[in-house]
Amino acid sequence: MYENEEKLTKAFVIAAIIWGVIGMCMGLMAALQLYLPQLNFANEYINFGKIRPLHTNAIIFGLVCNFIIGLSLYIVAKTSVVNLVSKGLSWFLFWGWQITLVIGLISIALGYTSTKEYAEFEWPIDIAIVVLWLTFGYIFFGTLAKRKTKHIFVSNWFSGGVIIVIGLIYLINNLAIPVYAFKGYSIFSGASDALVQWWWGHNAVGFLLTAGFVGTNYYFIPKLVNRPIYSYRLSLITFWGLIGFYTWAGTHHLLFTSVPSWIQNIGVVMSILLWIPSWAGAFNAWMTCTSNKEELKTNPVVWFFLSSIAYYALATFEGPLMAIRWFNMIAHNTSWVIGHVHSGALGWVGMTCIATFYYFIPKLYKKELYSYGLVKVHFVLAHIGVLFYIVSLWIGGIGQGVKSLSLTESGSLTYSFVDILRFMEPYMLGRAIGGALFILGMLVMVYNLIMTVNKPQKVVIEGAY
Question: Which one of the record's GO molecular function terms can you name (predicted)?
Fold first, then answer.
């Protein structure tokens, strides 16, 4: 019954892995250039200013979006006990997304950029993304509308929320007046432009990198441990809390700016309130994941899910912390923020993707995983890598912030910009080492999964490993 859905999901999952590895390698290249700027070789196409947006867009639109689109469509079909509403449109969505992303990344490499964070693509690419996202929404909600079950499974609540919120905010933030092909100017200006940008920027994190993955976890963790979700009520608290609070929290990136104080204060309050739904979701997933003690002891894939939940709780502690003005004054605009982002990006999103790939790809191909020993190797590499990365930037970032604010008795700066760069040098090395170890673990995973897919056919019983 689900032959097309399984083929489509395989395509999206494989694309997610490929884009993930490419995007992470670009991130490592950028990190190495921050430690050794000479590694840009004075080449305009591989300097930090080009590589950094290539890295973020390959991860967000390549790894994350392929993961969310593919698995959301699989889950909605499975839980609704129907096929997707349109086979042709589903494949149009897959190929259209990959082609648009390739063209978009090439355009950034050639210097065409809107300069907006996580929204660097120029207007033709934005139009293509909006059309494809609407296609995704039509397939998802069309499938949901013809479901054979009365109940809407909780994962579909999160996926539906992601589709609506991301579609709306991406469209509004990227409204522009075209000047010529691949160049346009935002219809917003000044403080209004900053407000709309961080409405998008923070919710790209809040929904693509948070709600989407919370939703898939509610499907795959119970499958993996063969236990029900710990608390359905907590899952709804998480959903409505994210919907109600997250969309207002982006202005905590605009404290101490010309944005009106009352708008800044809304961001502060909503960011702190986010602790409630975020930790409710983390607690719910943790209790579900630990409900099967035998799997917890013996299955390293469960360990990846547990790690992702722990990093989710950590990252959603750091975000509201940054909304507190005294801490924001020290940490914002420093490398601490990069450490915070990557405790979520590598720790939460990365570990969730890894765990899902290890569990789901053998099921899709009806094979047993090639090596659980290699999963354990990957577990060690990934965790040492994340710790090197984020601890380096936590320490370096706070030192960077304190030094930037330090004044002499006469009121002049105690430390020059060059002094602070020299101080950050060993922490930039730690960041690069951490990123390299994480990528090495990803390559171990790719090898393990390729060997799994190439194994002789063997039907896997659901829940067996």
Answer: cytochrome-c oxidase activity
- Close Cβ partners of 283 (under 8 Å, ≥ 6 residues apart): 234
List the structure tokens of 327: 């801490």
Neighbours of 104 (CB within 10 A): 24
Give me the DSSP letters along 328-357.
HHHHTTSHHHHHHHHIIIIIIIIHHHHHHH
Q: Report the candidate in 216, 265, 210 with the shortest Cα–Cα distance to residue 243.
A: 210
Whole-model pTM: value is: 0.95
Residue 202's closest CA among 130, 282, 267, 123?
A: 267
Residue 22: what residue type? I
What are the structure tokens assigned to 316, written together? 């959603």
Predicted local distance difference test score (pLDDT) of residue 2: 81
Mean pLDDT of successive 10-residue stretches along the chain, which has 465 residues: 89 98 97 94 91 97 97 96 96 98 97 93 97 98 95 95 96 95 93 94 91 95 95 93 91 92 94 94 96 93 96 94 93 95 96 97 94 97 97 97 94 94 96 97 98 77 43
Cβ neighbour number for residue 147 with a 10 Å cutoff: 17
- Residue with tokens 């809390």, as numbered in its chain: 241
Both tokens of 197, joined, read: 């940008």
Torsion angle of alpha carbons 408, 413, 418, 424, nearest 10°? Answer: 80
Q: How far apart are CA 239 and CA 158, in angstroms?
A: 7
- Given the DSSP bridges, would you call strands 176-180 and 183-186 parallel, antiparallel or unpaired? antiparallel
Q: Spell out the domain ranges in the chain.
A: 1-187
β-pair partners for 245: none
Supply the pLDDT for residue 463: 44
One DSSP character per residue, 38-60 reads GGGTT-TTSSHHHHHHHHHHIII
Q: What is the CATH number of domain 1-187?
A: 1.20.210.10
Instruction: Supply 82's token pair.
Output: 């129907």
3-class DSSP assignment, residue 186: strand
Could you give the CA distance from residue 31 to residue 50 in angstroms, rounded to a whole number? 13
If you ran DSSP here, which 8-state letter would residue 209 be given?
I
Nearest residue to 289 (alpha-carbon basis) of 233, 217, 359, 209: 217
